[in-house]
Fold these 2 entries.
Entry 1:
Amino acid sequence: MNGFEQPRKPSNRVLAATRAGQIRRQRLAEAREREARIEQTVVDILAAKFAISEAHLTIAEGVRQLKLLGETQDSIAGLCELSIGEVRAASAFAREHTPTTEPKAITAPIRTLNDEEARDAHGER
């Protein structure tokens, strides 16, 4: 032996295990990438949905303000390039989402229990 021996070739079993590990890692990386794309798409959709909701609120508030200034549905539709149906929908949306009165405060006095009632409530007798 002269020290120039060729290294041993890996067995088929070792080669198969190595290849299986590579395939597994590749599939996991693809799955992570797919999940990241799905997550980003969902975030984009939610952001767009929020922007649409904000736009609806702005339109509804604008229609409400124009009505308070005496404009009719026809004039609002003409001024804002909306259909009558869109003006009506915005008006309904504004009615649903604009509080008309402040919530009423509780005005009844709070009744306190006397000693005997307190013992009865706690099961002491």
Entry 2:
Amino acid sequence: MADSIQMHGQEKLQEFMRRVLDRVDDPSKLWYDISDLLVFNVQQRIKTGIGTDDKPWQKSWRAKVQGGQTLRDNGRLYNSIFAKVQGNKISVGTNVKYAPILHFGGTIKPKSGKYLVFRTPMGGWRKIKAVYIPPRPYMGISVDDSQEILFEIEEYLYKVLTDAKH
């Protein structure tokens, strides 16, 4: 003797699943919401001076001498952060040339000559052979970012399932 299961109302279940799939077929709103979140969080890291690793950055020489914030001299880097959504891919970046050295750190040496020459806050000039910039990781996804992304996905799926009921 074989056991059997009878299912009633499978047409309703299939229709519900069709409505869910129709709504999930174009997740572009989700990708744009996540991209907005990532841009905001990168800008927050620049504002607060706390990296993707949740560690505060070493204060820059300029910020120590002139006051203000590290990586926020004129707002150029902060205002340049953008996101691009292409299909199911999100890219977050900047077009500022000096952004990589600020993110990864490194040593800047003169292209020609023996010295880098800088104007001091007092109006004078200073010559030095090299400048070391410590890493200040502002790009990337932190643990908190990952949690916020998962929350956005949960909200999206909840809305899809709720909307599909009607």
